[in-house]
Amino acid sequence: MKHLRVLVLMLLILGVLFSVGVAKKLVYGYVTPGPDTWYRKDVEGFQYAAKLAGVEVVVLNSDYDVEKEIANIQTLVNMGVDGMCIFSFNPNGAFIAARECARAGIPLVVTDNVGEVLKSQDPVVACIDFNWDAMGKDIANYIAKNYPGENIAVIMGRLEHVPVQMFLKSFEPEVKKLGKNKIVAIRDGKYIPDEAVKQAQDLIESGYDFSILFVFNEEMGAAVVRMLKARNLLNNPIKVITTNGAPYGIELIKEGSIQYSISSSPGWEGFVSFLALHAYVTGKIKALRQWIFLPITPITPETIDDKTKVVPWDIDPVWIDLTKEYFPEYKGLLDVLN
What we know:
Strand order of the largest sheet: 2-1-3-4-5-11
Radius of gyration: 23 Å
Structural class: alpha/beta
Number of domains: 2
CATH architecture of the largest domain: 3-Layer(aba) Sandwich
Oligomer: single chain
CATH topology of the largest domain: Rossmann fold
Mean pLDDT: 92
Helix content: 40-55%
Number of strands: 12
């Protein structure tokens, strides 16, 4: 009997040790909207933070297809992931994810939705955004100050993308209020460099009177710059202004091919998106419906080589320091992960 009790005790101890040793590894899902560089860097930032935390990430790409995006959301729900992040290219995607995650009890973080999903009645952990409203006003003021009297043509990303709509909602009224410039055309570049070039060529060949060309991101902007150089139109008369602070954009700014841009790192955004989700899943932060803004920084000769101002797109430990500075609520979590 004594030996039996010892055997039972040993089995119990082994059972406890075994259960601790094979503790369930957290798995998060990430639905990304398409293949372009901005989205890829956002995913890489999320994955970098996940690697530090020992969390597995399942990434599904929607390829700008609404039905595929819905299927991706449902796939992750059916997998029973422990948390989900969605970066949707259309206004409805985040709402669908919020509804399906609420039904399944899966915490959800939404990236680049300008807080729209917070209007939903479904619980969402957080929206992670840049201040697109401030960005639109900043670009308008820069143009008014440096190029008064010159007309503006605009090539945006996908016009159905909520940040695009938010940017235009502040940019257009600010240009009108300042009264120094006129917007003569707004085109949809669809976040595709070749499409942006096509739209820029059409603007030129259709006879639009403009000398400022604002291109919503530097992936499109770099392609437009190459076309303008080939046609001997770059800076004479057409000046290019962009946003994002991408590595190739930085080089074009330094050589004078892009006149102005604003730093907004998708890699850092993905990093913070993970932290918001992980902090909630692990019980470090219990708040729901958070709206978290990452800072934006004008790219000037004084800031262009400062990684704390012009934040790298590629994985960089500076993200950890910046996060501790701007989001001290994650400092304890980062101290454990790092």
